[in-house]
Amino acid sequence: MSEEISAQLKNEFNETSELAKSLPIGVTNQEKLQLYAHFKQANEGDINTDRPGMMDFAGKAKWDEWNKLKGMSKQAAMEKYIQVYKDLKAKYVKD
């Protein structure tokens, strides 16, 4: 069964993912991983690849973070991605 996601949510998600590319220096790697994992879950759904090898530290960290979201709907992942971005913007961007 295909998941119905509103056009409004898709648009907000797409706009937010563009804005997230310009988050300032200071955002931690863990915070970036949260954005990455929710982005992947929103676009691809549950992870379906093998865990990277032991020397691929960045790949393993990304895989592990995405794998934590297994079972989360694409809609919920989009909503969480937007919220994580807003939280990071409030924390790091001074108007």
What key attributes describe this structure?
flat; mainly alpha; 0% strand; Acyl-CoA Binding Protein; 95 residues
Architecture overview:
It is a single chain. The protein is an all-alpha fold. The chain has one domain: Acyl-CoA Binding Protein, CATH 1.20.80. The protein has helices at 7-20, 29-44, 57-67, 74-92. Helix 2 packs across helix 3 (57-67) and helix 2 (29-44) packs antiparallel against helix 4. The radius of gyration is 14 Å and the shape is flat.
Short description:
This protein is an all-alpha fold and 95 residues long. It has helices spanning 7-20, 29-44, 57-67, 74-92.
Topology:
Elements: H1 7-20, H2 29-44, H3 57-67, H4 74-92
What's the architecture, going by CATH?
Up-down Bundle
- CATH fold annotation: Acyl-CoA Binding Protein
Fraction of residues in H or I helices: 55-70%
Whole-Å distance between the termini? 43 Å
Assigned CATH class:
Mainly Alpha
Largest sheet: none
- Rough outline: flat
Number of strands: 0
Query: How many separate helices?
Result: 4
Low-confidence stretches: none
How many discrete structural domains? 1
What does the average pLDDT come to?
95
Strand content: under 5%
Radius of gyration: 14 Å
In N-to-C order, the SSE pattern is HHHH
* Global structural class: mainly alpha
